[in-house]
Amino acid sequence: MTHPREAVRARLQTDRPHSARVWNYLLGGKDNYPVDSEAGEVILKTFPEFAAVARLQRRFLSRAVRFLAGEAGVRQFLDIGTGLPTADNTHELAQRIAPESRIVYVDNDPLVLVHAQALLTSSAEGACAYVDADVRDPARILAEAAKTLDLSRPVALTMLGIMGQISDAERPADLVNALMSALPPGSYLALSDGTDTNEALNTAVRVYNGQSANTYHLRSPQEIASFFTGLDLVEPGAVSTATWRPDAEQSEEDTADVSFCGVAVKK
């Protein structure tokens, strides 16, 4: 019988880079292993702007959640592909506006879940929960989320950088549809992912995929926009990440336009 610690160690796969830990390295975090930082450096050598792109996507999360909790009035969030905690996580952003907000974080990296349980603590008025599940299993995600969220009331589903983890053969659009179909009208989808429009990034991702435990799949802006099919995009629509409702007081970094995003509502 495998000892529980050995099982966790096997899932961590510290001998191969993992996307959440590489992303953490690119954002300047410390929660990664040498193999992850080495992979991050390979990416940066091929595509030096990648760290700035990671920061841009993180700032999109901030703007999207502030819109959802503020203007849209959403009080429930389902964050799939949580990643390792950094500053301004989903619950912090939402509960800053509405302390009663309830957030469910979903990831299948055991290191992410350990850190999430320790660091992503809710306000007294709201709630945070953590689900160990893969985006490829929407039924499990929804069943576990329903223990914290009222799925008869609007939910904001956030999926940042997660659909790139899914190959075309795994039918990523069907996974998005399965999740959104279970949520009531008034629910939102906030999604962003990397595009295949820059050859240097394409090369960096090919190199990363050759050594990583999980591959990443860049897509065209049109393919990413198609994930919003059947939903009503809020202004300014499906656009490059840097141009989605930018903060007037914060100028975005000058990076290659390689990330695409949108926020849409289910009517």
UniProtKB/TrEMBL annotation:
The keyword Methyltransferase applies. It holds the Pfam family Methyltransf_19. It comes from the Bacteria. One of its GO terms (molecular function) is methyltransferase activity. The keyword Manganese does not apply. Keywords: Methyltransferase, Transferase. One of its GO terms (biological process) is methylation. InterPro entries: SAM-dependent_MTases_sf, SAM_dep_MeTrfase_SAV2177_type. This is SAM-dependent methyltransferase. It comes from Streptomyces lancefieldiae.
